[in-house]
Amino acid sequence: MRVVVLTGAGISAESGVPTFRDSDGLWEGHDPMMVATPEAFAADPDLVQRFYDERRAALPRVQPNAAHRALARLEEALGDDLFLVTQNVDDLHERGGSRRVHHMHGRLRAAWCTSCDQRPEWTGSLVDRPGCPGCGSPSLRPDVVWFGEMPHGMDVIEQELWAAELFVSMGTSGAVYPAAGFVHWASANGARTLELNLEPSDGSAHFDQARHGPATELVPAWVD
Ligand code: BJW
């Protein structure tokens, strides 16, 4: 059976990674949603870089949880019949054992040179921003997808959704498109759809089935 799994911030919440919309936390007095925009980067690049530097620096302090590990077991069982697409920019799926992860909103550990279009890994040596290792330009930015930008690999995602027999969305509020619309793309082609989330998401009513609770309980129970 061809399965597409979409994950969001809720799957990493129990690892200690803050979600976007249920945290009351401001970052240095800013709403994180206002920082994760091209406009914020144009207005104050240092502030936005610091936001991502801090999140990147926090990665080694968080560990994959039972939900990430369950999805790695699912990949073992289904092989190429599983397509795992995440909105998360952390690396917890990979560290949980998943080998093929499609990061539609980019990765914290990657940089993007807007001058030469290379995407080097954002290693420790890039923290001081010496410039792009390819062309030397200072135009490196985090390789993440902000509002108004095109998510990565939409063509591949669309193909997978059309071919899916089962679509499962987990740990996402359903507030951000195009990911929030995947349930419609999958069900239009006859896939069954399932939501696993702490609470009903904005799109809950569009799924054939929904189960609500913490990801570390729901995801292993569904996989195993
Ligand atoms: C738990 C839990 C636990 C907690 N267990 N669960 C209509 C159609 C198409 C587009 C638009 C549209 N209207 C507006 C747009 C444009 C816009 C958009 O969607 N705006 C909305 C605000 C309305 N979208 C875009 O601009 C996107 N690009 C685009 O549309 O290009 C054109 C295009 C059109 C058509 C096809 C293709 C392309 C780009 C969106 C980029 C989003 N970027 C961010 C930042 C990434 C970098 C970074 O991390 O800093 O992505 S914003 C932020 O939101 C981040 C997330 O990936 C994303 C989604 O958040 P997520 O993961 O759902 O987290 P939360 O916090 O919202 O929810 C967590 C959930 O977990 C909650 O429900 C909790 O209950 C649950 N939870 N603990 C289980 N323990």
From TrEMBL:
Location relative to the cell: Cytoplasm
Q: Which SUPFAM superfamilies does the entry link to?
A: DHS-like NAD/FAD-binding domain (SSF52467)
Protein name per Swiss-Prot or TrEMBL: NAD-dependent protein deacylase
Which residues are catalytic? 105
- Broad EC category: transferase
Superkingdom of the source? Answer: Bacteria
Q: Where does substrate bind?
A: 52, 55
**Gene expressing this chain:** cobB
Domain comment text? 2 residues (Tyr-52 and Arg-55) present in a large hydrophobic pocket are probably involved in substrate specificity. They are important for desuccinylation activity, but dispensable for deacetylation activity.
- Write one Gene Ontology MF term: zinc ion binding
Cellular component terms (Gene Ontology)? cytoplasm
Cofactor note from UniProt? Binds 1 zinc ion per subunit.
Question: In which residues is NAD(+) bound?
Answer: 8-27, 87-90, 171-173, 197-199, 215
Describe the family membership recorded for this protein in Swiss-Prot or TrEMBL: Belongs to the sirtuin family. Class III subfamily.
Ranges for domain Deacetylase sirtuin-type: 1-224
Q: Which reaction does it catalyse?
A: N(6)-acetyl-L-lysyl-[protein] + NAD(+) + H2O = 2''-O-acetyl-ADP-D-ribose + nicotinamide + L-lysyl-[protein]; N(6)-succinyl-L-lysyl-[protein] + NAD(+) + H2O = 2''-O-succinyl-ADP-D-ribose + nicotinamide + L-lysyl-[protein]
EC no. given is: 2.3.1.286
Instruction: Tell me the function of this protein.
Output: NAD-dependent lysine deacetylase and desuccinylase that specifically removes acetyl and succinyl groups on target proteins. Modulates the activities of several proteins which are inactive in their acylated form.
Instruction: Identify the InterPro entries for this entry.
Output: DHS-like_NAD/FAD-binding_dom (IPR029035), NAD-dep_sirtuin_deacylases (IPR050134), Sirtuin (IPR003000), Sirtuin_cat_small_dom_sf (IPR026591), Sirtuin_class_III (IPR027546), Ssirtuin_cat_dom (IPR026590)
Q: Which cofactor does it need?
A: Zn(2+)
Q: Where does Zn(2+) bind?
A: 113, 116, 132, 135
> What keywords appear on the UniProt entry?
Cytoplasm, Metal-binding, NAD, Transferase, Zinc
